[in-house]
Amino acid sequence: MAKVNPKLIDELKELGAFDISACYSCGVCTATCPLAQEGHEFPRKIIRYAILGLEDKLISSTEPWLCYYCGECTQSCPRGADPAGFMMAVRRYLTTHYDFTGFSRRFYRSKVVELISTILLFTVTVLSIYLVHGPIILTRVDLDSFLPPHIVELGDIVILVVLSALLLTNVYRMYRLTVMARNIPFTAYIKEFVRTVVPHFLTQIRMLKCNRNTLNWIMHILIVYGYATIFIFVVVFLDLFQTNVLYPIYSPIRLGGYIASAALLIGAGYAIYGRLRKDTVMRQYSHSTDWFFLTLLYLVVITGVLIDAFKYMGLPMETYIAYTVHLGLVTPLLVLEVPFAKWSHLAYRPFAIYFTRLNDLSKARTVQVTA
Length: 371
Fold this sequence. Notes:
Strand content: under 5%
CATH topology of the largest domain: Fumarate Reductase Cytochrome B subunit
Number of strands: 0
Oligomer: single chain
Distance between the termini: 28 Å
Shape: elongated
Order of helices and strands: HHHHHHHHHHHHHHHHHHH
CATH architecture of the largest domain: Up-down Bundle
Number of domains: 2
CATH class of the largest domain: Mainly Alpha
């Protein structure tokens, strides 16, 4: 018998599900959804799970991740409910169940936890830099002396290993909760991984199937690839990126940094502007963690730009302060967002498509065997 949680709908409301109690299960939302398909209907089915308190069924569903929040369902709802916002709330809810540490649950449910964890990580990072920094040279900008690259590289490696372990563990828990396939050959796992996870992670192409979602897709891609470029520069090519060398304007390193920063400023700026205007369905309601992510991302980009500006203006102390603040902001952005919140969705979405495909293959093989 399915486990019933009578407080499930209240938990989802706490995570941003508005007006879903108005739903009377007409199915218009599913009929109008450009991404719903036979065997994987949503949002109606997912809404019913929540209203009936069927927690286990909700947790084992991959369909919430197949939704890209275009808002078509909310616009077409005859009862004025908000299926799109509900699906977003369910994704937050599922994120808290994939996380084995339990921190994601606290992070999503408490603004105090958001604020304290951010301040704590920022403070620890800045204090660590204060304790390990080298000579503060004021006659010129000398970042290599102020904070030797090998120290930053060590911090990068530690954070990368820890975050990768957390995220991969959470993805594995997602697999255990959602995949019922047990009769698929190993080669099929590899083949479907290449066919689904890789292209969807790199392109987010399903988002373009949503009506009027092209601009949102472009802005989403700008944020993803802008940050990925900066991340690669800082982690892989730190010796080239953090250097005392003043690159000319046409240098690939300098141009790459400018282009990536511009992409982030445009993408994040568009998202913030939309949330302030509330001019589309997907911008009408914003959870506190949405604002947290965008604000922190914007501050990281701004301080990164200031580092470069102060460096080329020949302002040593300003450069060192901006660099310290920048790293202090980068730490909570990575540590809190990658395994526990918004950035983790970049992994959960393509893996949900992958796990859905595995379940479909398993069902097809079962039918063939019993036929």
